[in-house]
Structure formats: C-alpha cells, structure tokens
Amino acid sequence: MMIKRILENLFYYYNARHFLSLGEGTKINPTASVHCENLISIGKHSFIGKWCHISIVEPSSLSIGNFVCISPYVRVPGK
User: Fold this and answer.
1) Is the confidence at residue 41, as pLDDT, over 70?
2) Backbone torsions φ then ψ of 28, nearest 5 degrees
3) 22 near 15, Cβ under 8 Å?
4) How far apart (Å, rounded) are the C-alpha atoms in residues 38 and 44?
5) What's the structural domain count of the chain?
6) Is 61 in contact with 39 (CB distance < 8 Å)?
7) pTM: predicted TM-score of the whole model, two decimal places
8) Using CA atoms, how far apart are residues 78 and 14, in angstroms rounded to an integer?
9) 43 close to 59: Cβ distance less than 8 angstroms
10) How far, in Å, CA of 15 to CA of 74, rounded?
11) What's the DSSP call for residue 51?
12) Measured between alpha carbons, how far is 47 from 15 in angstroms, rounded to an integer?
C-alpha cells in the first residue's frame, strides 16, 4: 500500500506541473489521454477515468469543477 501511495503522489505532482491548475485529491487514470494540459484546470477531488481523451485547442480553455467524475471512454474534443 505504501508503494501505491508514493506512486500516486508522484503521478499527482508530475501532472500538477503541467496543468493550468490541479486541485488536491484529483486523480487522472494513467491510460487517459489529455492534450494541451496548460489550457486545462481541474478542481479538487475530481477523477478522469480510463481511456478518456481530452483535447483542447488554443485559444480555448477547459475548466473542470470540484468533485467531478468523468467516466471511462469519454471523449472531449477541442475545437
């Protein structure tokens, strides 16, 4: 369990550096595909499921609120 927690923390801090903002307790499944992270902000305790695809194109941005759960296989295309 301790190794799992360490890996989750490393994954969180890695993602936090790339997103516009990333709330505490947010989890992103490693199989999810997120493009242009610098245009996406995610609130606290949110979750992005497995095999999700989120893509945003400048000058747009995406804000995902607190306590949001995005189910597996969801596709959010950017325009």
Assistant:
1) yes
2) -125, 120
3) yes
4) 17
5) 1
6) yes
7) 0.79
8) 23
9) no
10) 20
11) T
12) 13
**Domain that includes residue 14, residue range:** 2-76
| Residue at 12: amino acid letter | Y
Angstrom distance (rounded) from CA 59 to CA 33: 20
Looking at residues 27-36, what average pLDDT do you find? Answer: 89
Of the candidates 13, 31, 30, the one whose C-alpha atom is nearest the C-alpha of residue 22 is 13
Q: What's the token pair of residue 28?
A: 């992103």
Contact 26, 43 (CB under 8 A): yes
Sheet holding 33-35, edge to edge: 33-35, 53-55, 75-76
The runs of H, that is alpha helices, within 1-79 are 2-16
- Residue 79 pLDDT class (50, 70, 90 cuts): low
| Token pair 């189910």 in the structure block, residue | 71
Residue 59 near residue 38 (C-beta atoms within 8 A): no
